[in-house]
Design a protein that fits this description.
Layout lengths: L1 E5 L4 H10 L6 E7 L3 H11 L3 E4 L2 H10 L4 E4 H9 L6 E4 L7 H9 L3 E4 L2 H17 L4 E3 L2 H9 L9 E8 L9 H4 L4 H4 L9 H9 L1 H14 L6 E5 L5 E7 L4 E5 L5 H9 L29 H12 L3 H17 L5 H14 L8 H21 L1
Parallel strand pairs: 1-2, 1-5, 2-3, 3-4, 5-6, 6-7, 8-9
Antiparallel strand pairs: 8-10, 10-11
């Protein structure tokens, strides 16, 4: 199988690189990153792609000096070139943020299977993405641990016949046991210390606010064609059970493994096979599993994203785009932790929802969110 990797130098991209060392039958034809040309060059030395994309033009020039024998492209045009490369069978989309939507759509319309870690594509434009996959008879192979767990419980299928509900698990993040008054004073540095997972900064902040679990709620709806009232969320602090499927006859299947993204990454590349992988096995004599209901009072972002999901149309698109701006501002200490939820709530009360007909509707909504963010930050 021939693949390309978008977001190759990010957390998921680097772990995909590690997984590929165990899968010699997979060839990497193209790789894309934002600006880390040195890390991309190190990977390219091993994987020898024929095309490399660096979104930043200056970084692309630096890469070309290091590896003049590899074709280099830049910007969104380069990402689309990578995603639609004729020799590629599967596109790994590990880009963070809504920038990953266009390459996802381009890959699907070019009849490429997509291994998707870019949850924002489904959150912003789930109907368009799933229709493109259906129309072109290609697969979306989820790389999120929670959705991979459901996919594995369904034994490599997206068919949910006989399923009563999906149960997404959440670690609860770094502030799971903190009082609201203490959470109100946290900094980005505090939020970046996730108790179980090693992820990129944006996703780690989203886990702290629990926006991430709301986005995964939306993802589950689209991936498995499951009504929102049949998707539940449970806090599971140990992150051993990654999600569960309950059937109409009362049977509950759970996928369990250590909190390690390499397992769902490898499964996405080789499904439905569970291929051998070096890993530390679970010691069940030391595993204690506990579960809690989410606390929507201390983590209001989760309730807001769920509300946005149920409203539908462009509301999830707007919330997702606005959240990206807010996370960036929080990481620069420009706003507080609870400003994220209060600004999202204000925006939801102001925004006029549209139906999603095409990518222009997504772009208009993201522009609205950007403008709202700018006005709000200027006035505070």
């Amino acid at each position: 199988m021939n693949i390309c990797i978008l977001g190759a130098t990010g957390s998921i991209g680097r772990q995909t690189f590690d997984v590929l060392k165990n899968l010699p039958n997979i060839q990497v034809k193209a790789m894309a990153a934002s600006s880390d040309y040195k890390a991309l060059a190190d990977m390219a030395q091993v994987l020898r792609p024929s095309l490399v994309v660096l979104y930043d033009e200056e970084a692309a020039m630096q890469f070309k000096q290091l590896m003049p024998d590899i074709e280099v492209a830049t910007g969104m045009e380069g990402l689309l070139q990578c995603a639609t490369m004729p020799s590629v069978d599967l596109v790994v989309n590990a880009v963070v943020g809504s920038i990953g939507l266009k390459p996802t759509m381009a890959a699907l319309n070019a009849k490429k299977h997509v291994a998707l870690a870019n949850k924002e594509a489904l959150v912003a434009a789930g109907a368009l993405v799933m229709e493109a996959a259906r129309k072109n008879n290609v697969e979306i192979r989820t790389m999120d641990s929670e959705h991979s767990a459901i996919w594995q419980c369904l034994q490599g299928s997206y068919k949910t016949d006989g399923v009563k509900r999906l149960i997404l698990t959440a670690s609860g993040g770094p502030f799971r046991t903190w009082e609201k008054s203490k959470i109100a004073k946290v900094t980005a540095a505090d939020a970046l210390h996730h108790p179980n997972w090693n992820m990129g900064a944006k996703i780690t902040i989203d886990c702290a606010t629990m926006v991430n679990k709301g986005l995964e709620y939306l993802e589950a709806h689209w991936l498995f064609n499951m009504p929102y009232d049949k998707i539940d969320i449970l806090v599971h602090p140990q992150s051993i059970i990654h999600s569960m499927v309950e059937y109409e006859d009362g049977a509950v299947l759970a996928q369990m493994s250590a909190p390690d993204m390499k397992q769902p990454i490898q499964y996405a590349l080789g499904a439905p096979a569970h291929m051998p992988r070096k890993h530390t096995p679970l010691d069940f004599t030391k595993v204690n599993l506990s579960f809690e209901e989410p606390d929507y009072r201390r983590f209001p972002c989760l309730a807001l994203v769920i509300e946005a999901a149920k409203i539908g149309g462009t509301m999830p698109t707007m919330v997702n785009a606005l959240n990206e701006h807010l996370v960036s501002a929080f990481m620069k200490d420009a706003i507080s932790f609870y400003d994220i939820s209060s600004i999202i709530e204000d925006a939801m009360g102001t925004y006029s929802v549209k139906s999603v007909e095409n990518l222009s509707d997504i772009e208009e909504t993201e522009a609205w969110a950007s403008e709202f963010f700018g006005r709000t930050i200027t006035s505070t």
